[in-house]
Amino acid sequence: MGAFLRPSPPLALRKGFIWATGIEDTFISEPHPVTGRTLDEYDLTEHYKRWEEDLKLIAGLGVSAARYGIPWYRVCPQPGVYDWSWTDKVLDQMVNVHGVEPIIDLVHYGTPLWLEQSFFNPDYPQYVADYAGAFAERYKGLIYWYTPLNEPRVNAWYAGRLGWWPPYAKSWRGFVCMMLQLCRGICLTEQAVRNNEPDAVMVHVDATDLYIPADPLDTVLVSEAVKRQEMVFLALDLVMGRVNEVHSLHNWLEKQGMTDDDVSWFAKNAVQPDVIGYNMYPMFSQKIVSRTANGAIRVRIKPCWTETLAELTRMYAARYAPIPIMVTETASSGSLKRRGAWIEDSVAVVKRAQSEGVDVVGYTLWPLFSLVTWAYRNGKADASVYLIDMGLWDLQPGPGGLERLHTPLVETYKKLVAEG
Q1: Residue 166: inside a domain, yes or no?
Q2: Cα(237)–Cα(239) distance, integer angstroms
Q3: Is 5 a residue whose pLDDT tops 70?
Q4: Average pLDDT, integer, range 213-237
Q5: Residues 13-45: pLDDT tens digits?
Q6: Phi, then psi, of 5 in degrees rounded to 5
Q7: Quick check: helix, strand or coil at residue 285?
Q8: What is the C-alpha to C-alpha distance for residues 419 and 139, in angstroms, rounded to an integer?
Q9: Residues spanned by the domain of 76
Q10: Which residues touch 198 (CB under 8 Å, ≥6 apart)?
């Protein structure tokens, strides 16, 4: 345990700007009740088979770090039983051969099949903390950067509000219950990791959105937009012990099932991230709050550009200073021209923010190559139909499997990284 060696200082990334990338790593191991499909991006993109090739692609960019997910359901096939044979090889090579610092996603959606009711299992927070502690003990001296759970708000939305993912809840109460469970798990995970690796750097990551009322004079729409915007920050506020009787969402959360005991638990178990990460995509991250023809509230996506990224960057900095912030996922879909423009324009936003005194410490072009959209698990077409090109390499079916097709975006990103 903890016997891995590494040639570089463990906290070297703190000394400079963090250029990063990552491989889409959603892990929904439970078969869909209708289609029977699971959703393991490493399997669908053939990363399990081609990990050595993929690590070389990462290293060739010159980046200092890579966000990297661990398939909990595979490394922990039974409670308390672990199989590290695959992760041993990958993580050792990433650090000691390629010199890339892993920022580990301990949970990137989904739980092991043995965990009944998934995140709703009352023992979920302790189970995930046990797994996190075992991982940190195993890789002590090799791994220092951790994300306890990626995108808790999106996780709670898909599993607690939309009912797409286990345990398939479909209500605001389900969303809040899920958020409370996920955030308890984050707190206990961070404690378990730090108990095994005191030098751990915790990077808390969530998806971000900017909510805008369609009519700024409509007080109902303005109120709803404000509430939705506060939800963007809810997971961070919970784990940091900021949700109390004066929090803007306190009354709404109580109506959805949060209790005084919940508030007390988070106050007693609050954790402090070392870095706050936010994931922003111009295809998804601006939301317009409007009314339907019959007056009901409707939220719709409006494509946006870097003005939204700039505004969200300012919001995170103002809310959580002096904790540094980091763009932990961003990319555009569309043509190569549009995708390249997004890379250059979004990096320019980060540079401007830094010049204004905002402590932005990193940028992550995500993903490294194409991903299979989440609709695959609900659908029936071949996985190739669900491929979406957002990364530096495009994936294309070929005689040897999914080929990694080099695009001009590789040079675009390498140049930005090299210029530092």
Answers
A1: yes
A2: 6
A3: no
A4: 97
A5: 556 899 999 999 999 999 999 999 999 999 999
A6: -105, 155
A7: coil
A8: 32
A9: 18-208+235-282+319-419
A10: none
Tell me the per-residue pLDDT of 108-135, one tens digit each, with 9 for 90 and over.
999 999 999 999 999 999 999 999 999 9
pLDDT of 18 reads: 95
Note whether 312 and 399 are within 8 A (CB): no
In a domain, 309, yes or no: no
- Distance CA(113)–CA(73), nearest Å, equals 7
What is the token pair recorded at 50?
């081609």
Residue 266 lies in a domain: yes
Give the count of domains, the chain: 1
Cα(284)–Cα(374) distance, rounded to whole angstroms? Answer: 14
CATH code for the domain in which residue 380 is found? 3.20.20.80
Does residue 299 fall inside a structural domain? no
pLDDT at 282: 98
What mean pLDDT, rounded, does the chain reach? 96
- pLDDT of residue 9 exceeding 70: no
Q: What is the pTM of this model?
A: 0.96
- Asked whether the bond before 167 is cis by omega within 30 degrees of 0, the reply is yes
Identify which of 40, 101, 34 has the alpha carbon closest to the alpha carbon of residue 70. Answer: 40
Owner of token pair 């919001």: 315
The tokens 């050595």 sit on which residue?
52
Report the phi/psi class of residue 364: left, alpha or beta, with left for phi > 0 and alpha for psi in -120 to 50.
beta
Percent of the chain residues past pLDDT 70, beyond the cut: 96
Q: Which helix (H) or strand (E) holds 387?
A: strand 387-388
Give residue for tokens 């050792």: 92
Which class for 197: exposed (0-12), middle (13-18), buried (19 or more C-beta within 10 A)?
buried
